[in-house]
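User: Design a sequence. Structure:
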């Protein structure tokens, strides 16, 4: 599979890892748009939100548990942060491996 995020999970492409367990991998965004900007991805290839079902929804729930843990570690849990998941072409998804951007330490406006 020619998936950049699968390659990151497998160590074929370097990343600045901040968290890893058996289900998810988290790393700093290479082009951050806020002072805190990291991604949390499932290790299992799930192409996007449309692929969530009863066989993998526990992974997505775990992603949000990890985001809450990392928000505390990066001291954005109290001030607030944004979680972004793009789905499909019109949604702006460019990497077809479900991923969640976590943005913080900056006052964000609604688009």
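Assistant: Done.
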């Amino acid at each position: 599979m020619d998936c950049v995020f699968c390659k990151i999970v497998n160590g074929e492409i370097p990343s600045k890892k901040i968290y890893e367990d058996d289900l998810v991998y988290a790393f700093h965004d290479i082009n951050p748009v806020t002072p805190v900007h990291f991604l949390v991805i499932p290790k299992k290839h799930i192409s996007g939100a449309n692929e969530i079902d009863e066989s993998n929804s526990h992974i997505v729930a775990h992603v949000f548990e990890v985001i809450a843990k990392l928000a505390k570690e990066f001291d954005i849990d109290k001030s607030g942060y944004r979680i972004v998941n793009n789905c499909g072409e019109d949604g702006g998804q460019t990497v077809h491996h479900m991923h969640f951007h976590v943005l913080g330490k900056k006052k964000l406006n609604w688009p």
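The radius of gyration is 14 Å. The mean pLDDT is 96.
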